[in-house]
Amino acid sequence: HMCMYVCGTASEFDRDSAFHFLFPPWQCSRKNRVPTLFSSTFSSLSPNQQPFQLSHGTTTLGFIFQDGVIAAADTRASCKGLICCPISQKIMPIHSHLVVNTSGSSADCMLWEWILTHEMRLYQLRHRKRLSVNGAAKLLSTMLHPFKDQNTKNVLSTFGGRSGPRVCYVCSDGLQLKGEIISVGSGSPYAYAVLDDGWRWGMTVDEAVALAREAVFRATHWDAYSGNNVDLFHITAHGWRRRDREDLKEEYYRERERKSKKIKEREKERQKREGDELGEGDIYSVHCG
Amino acid sequence: MMISARAYGDNGKMKEHHYTGPVEHKFSPYAFNGGTVLAVAGEDFALVASDTRLSEGYSIHSRDSPKCYKLTDTTVIGCSGFHGDCLTLTKIIEARLKMYKHSNNKSMTSGAIAAMLSTILYGKRFFPYYVYNIIGGLDEEGRGAVYSFDPVGSYQRDTYKAGGSASAMLQPLLDNQIGFKNMENVEQLPLTLEKAVQLVKDVFISAAERDVYTGDALKICIITKEGIREEIVPLRKD
């Protein structure tokens, strides 16, 4: 017996839907209780009972500005203390104008991206127009609703460019937020700090890209569960464009170079200044080389 | 298995253990049977290797229980973790392969098997198969392919991957030797079959030194367009 997933519309979300998952024995031992997804008092499988941890931990962010939307994410997939994959892709294009950032368990993210892509395409074929970003967020939120109790922790931010740039945050517990700057994951506090500081509506594309890169870089520097490379997508009315994946290790060394150069320059300036102040031949000059 | 921090409290000191009275243990549907699996993909070959020890707690159930299972002429899967789930999962995969063969009149390709395994695993998202899978094989163009999975079905295509109890020890070594990570000014030559087999043997010998769940013997399945060849190499038995 296997549980096959079948893509369906909202009307199929009933007791006999394909979302019928098997649950472990100790939860089935309650009397007269059939394990269904709509039982609100059904306790979820607590993390302690599972013998392994699923992949978590990330930094993803997105913000809008006058020339579209920037989506950026790191590429590290971790599993408790081990980095399962240093080169995972966390930003998935859904269609030419919609991109999804994912955070949470990788398997859940893969599945929901797949589902969302298919549902959006079906909507487009049925209604002869594309679903808006708000519509996509609502659809996703509705589809995630049956899994509210379960600790799937699936969080997606969606971006669009058709009705103007938009950023949406959708969470598996039902929360939906729209905003100008959104960041998700264990590294998000650090990313927010950088974004809040540098964000302006009137930024140029280069400034925006640099800001996003910097935010992810700082987050990966401080957060243990984020790291490796940074992926960047820029979405405009013409569609999404992907920037080459960049290794942040190089950026770290470049910054060290820049810092040491700055320190040397400052040293030189200080020496020159004090040399001028003290005048020639002052035996109390304290500089040595 | 990763070293756990359970013995240490929040302040870094060792936790003191007191007798707290009788403890009731719930039945756990899972057990950990150890074992390490490794897969490497080359230009025109793929390797899947596993040790053959089956353990549980402090005992060894068997010294001859390999974890590589042949699926088709071009694909081998390595499963480590809970042996019961490994057996069931491979039975399900083999049944699905037969069904595909009968309805489509051709064998499944490696990529298709990987995608199918992902959906099989996710079907039990809330009561997962406790299995770490790695599929090694040749893709449609004859190039080596390795697909690595997590227990609930997230997967991707890699060049090399280690899974199982000694994975954290083997993966960095593979990153260095095959991926040339953390090496400067080194010529990046493509991996030949002989070099890959030797590397896999060396790497497992090292793993057997330090991981208690890995040892006894090493079985390597070498997949080329001529077919699948097996090699068995003895490892430490202690």
From TrEMBL, chain A:
<dbReference type="InterPro" id="IPR023333">
    <property type="entry name" value="Proteasome_suB-type"/>
</dbReference>
<dbReference type="InterPro" id="IPR000243">
    <property type="entry name" value="Pept_T1A_subB"/>
</dbReference>
<keyword id="KW-0647">Proteasome</keyword>
<dbReference type="InterPro" id="IPR029055">
    <property type="entry name" value="Ntn_hydrolases_N"/>
</dbReference>
<dbReference type="GO" id="GO:0004298">
    <property type="term" value="F:threonine-type endopeptidase activity"/>
</dbReference>
<dbReference type="Pfam" id="PF00227">
    <property type="entry name" value="Proteasome"/>
</dbReference>
<dbReference type="GO" id="GO:0005839">
    <property type="term" value="C:proteasome core complex"/>
</dbReference>
<dbReference type="GO" id="GO:0005634">
    <property type="term" value="C:nucleus"/>
</dbReference>
<feature type="active site" description="Nucleophile">
    <location>
        <position position="58"/>
    </location>
</feature>
<dbReference type="InterPro" id="IPR001353">
    <property type="entry name" value="Proteasome_sua/b"/>
</dbReference>
<dbReference type="GO" id="GO:0005737">
    <property type="term" value="C:cytoplasm"/>
</dbReference>
<comment type="similarity">
    <text>Belongs to the peptidase T1B family.</text>
</comment>
<keyword id="KW-0963">Cytoplasm</keyword>
<comment type="function">
    <text>The proteasome is a multicatalytic proteinase complex which is characterized by its ability to cleave peptides with Arg, Phe, Tyr, Leu, and Glu adjacent to the leaving group at neutral or slightly basic pH. The proteasome has an ATP-dependent proteolytic activity. This subunit is involved in antigen processing to generate class I binding peptides.</text>
</comment>
<feature type="region of interest" description="Disordered">
    <location>
        <begin position="251"/>
        <end position="289"/>
    </location>
</feature>
<comment type="function">
    <text>Component of the proteasome, a multicatalytic proteinase complex which is characterized by its ability to cleave peptides with Arg, Phe, Tyr, Leu, and Glu adjacent to the leaving group at neutral or slightly basic pH. The proteasome has an ATP-dependent proteolytic activity.</text>
</comment>
<keyword id="KW-0645">Protease</keyword>
<keyword id="KW-0539">Nucleus</keyword>
<dbReference type="GO" id="GO:0051603">
    <property type="term" value="P:proteolysis involved in protein catabolic process"/>
</dbReference>
<keyword id="KW-0378">Hydrolase</keyword>
<feature type="compositionally biased region" description="Basic and acidic residues">
    <location>
        <begin position="251"/>
        <end position="276"/>
    </location>
</feature>
<keyword id="KW-0888">Threonine protease</keyword>
Automatic annotation (TrEMBL), chain B:
<dbReference type="GO" id="GO:0005634">
    <property type="term" value="C:nucleus"/>
</dbReference>
<keyword id="KW-0647">Proteasome</keyword>
<dbReference type="InterPro" id="IPR023333">
    <property type="entry name" value="Proteasome_suB-type"/>
</dbReference>
<dbReference type="GO" id="GO:0005737">
    <property type="term" value="C:cytoplasm"/>
</dbReference>
<comment type="function">
    <text>Non-catalytic component of the proteasome, a multicatalytic proteinase complex which is characterized by its ability to cleave peptides with Arg, Phe, Tyr, Leu, and Glu adjacent to the leaving group at neutral or slightly basic pH. The proteasome has an ATP-dependent proteolytic activity.</text>
</comment>
<comment type="function">
    <text>Component of the proteasome, a multicatalytic proteinase complex which is characterized by its ability to cleave peptides with Arg, Phe, Tyr, Leu, and Glu adjacent to the leaving group at neutral or slightly basic pH. The proteasome has an ATP-dependent proteolytic activity.</text>
</comment>
<dbReference type="GO" id="GO:0051603">
    <property type="term" value="P:proteolysis involved in protein catabolic process"/>
</dbReference>
<dbReference type="InterPro" id="IPR029055">
    <property type="entry name" value="Ntn_hydrolases_N"/>
</dbReference>
<dbReference type="InterPro" id="IPR001353">
    <property type="entry name" value="Proteasome_sua/b"/>
</dbReference>
<comment type="similarity">
    <text>Belongs to the peptidase T1B family.</text>
</comment>
<dbReference type="InterPro" id="IPR016050">
    <property type="entry name" value="Proteasome_bsu_CS"/>
</dbReference>
<protein>
    <recommendedName>
        <fullName>Proteasome subunit beta</fullName>
    </recommendedName>
</protein>
<comment type="subunit">
    <text>The 26S proteasome consists of a 20S proteasome core and two 19S regulatory subunits. The 20S proteasome core is composed of 28 subunits that are arranged in four stacked rings, resulting in a barrel-shaped structure. The two end rings are each formed by seven alpha subunits, and the two central rings are each formed by seven beta subunits. The catalytic chamber with the active sites is on the inside of the barrel.</text>
</comment>
<dbReference type="GO" id="GO:0005839">
    <property type="term" value="C:proteasome core complex"/>
</dbReference>
<keyword id="KW-0539">Nucleus</keyword>
<keyword id="KW-0963">Cytoplasm</keyword>
<comment type="subunit">
    <text>Component of the proteasome complex.</text>
</comment>
<dbReference type="Pfam" id="PF00227">
    <property type="entry name" value="Proteasome"/>
</dbReference>
